Amino acid sequence: MQYTVFKTPVFRHILLFLSWSWLTLGNWKIVGEVPKEKKFVLIAAPHTSNWDFPLLMAMACMLRFEIYWMGKDALFAGPFGPFMRWLGGIPIDRRNTNNVVEATVNAFNRSEQLIVVIPPEGTRSKVRVWKTGFYHIAVGANVPIGLSFLDFSKKEGGFMPTFYPTGNLESDIDTIKSYYRDVKGKYPNLGR
User: Fold this and answer.
1) Deepest in the core among 4, 51, 95, 133, taking most CB within 10 A?
2) d(Cα 42, Cα 137) in Å, to the nearest integer?
3) What is the distance between the alpha carbons of residues 120 and 100, in angstroms, rounded to a whole number?
4) What are phi and psi of 87, to 5 degrees?
5) Phi/psi at 68 (nearest 5 deg)?
6) What confidence tens digit (pLDDT) does each residue in 32-68 have?
């Protein structure tokens, strides 16, 4: 995977200080247990706001782990492309999802340590059905699914229990969604 902000020597210490300051001043708390595995798919839900990304990055810095995240390819166009990649971004062409699953599974198979963040809604807009690419990646790579969240009503972010897919897609998705039942995004009317 590409070189990211999380491995940039001096800057990662500055980012750690900025993250700590922002979360502390904003009264945000990090709760739950970080998955112990070195490789996992990390879902981030609910995804209702542009604030989700900087909060996720700040919490990753505080927890001192390197994450990669998937975003629509338009975010990587033009002069911001290299910057977005440096932040751990992986551009996704939404019209061609099969290659994304296969490429991500291959990246997991080649890596000793890898955390890939995927918002299951796939967008900040209201969705009725979660996209299942994160699940297919986890099953294909034989890795667990970390359940991360940002609850704006409590100003808490963190982790729920790590989920190990059984291969039964519908049942597993229903179980995963049940963990998020009471979590409120910044704009709750957009969640689930």
Assistant:
1) 133
2) 11
3) 14
4) -80, 0
5) -120, 145
6) 989 999 999 999 988 888 899 899 999 999 998 899 9
Q: What is the pLDDT of residue 149?
A: 94
What is residue 34's DSSP assignment?
A: P
> Can you give the residue ranges of every domain in the chain?
5-190
CA distance 118 to 151: 17
- Tens of pLDDT, residues 107-133: 999 999 999 999 888 555 556 788 899
What does DSSP say about strands 89-92 and 29-31: parallel, antiparallel, or unpaired?
Answer: unpaired
Q: 103 falls in which pLDDT band (50, 70, 90)?
A: confident
> Rounded CA gap, 55 and 53, in Å?
5
Per-residue buried b or exposed e for 115-126, using 16+ beta carbons within 10 Å of the residue's own CB: bbbbbbbbebee
Instruction: Provide the sign of the torsion angle of the four alpha carbons 86, 51, 116, 39, taken in this order.
Output: positive
Alpha carbons 177 and 165: distance in angstroms, whole number = 13
Task: Write out the two tokens for 166.
Answer: 């059984």
Tell me the residue length of the chain. 192
Q: Do 66 and 4 touch, CB atoms closer than 8 A?
A: yes
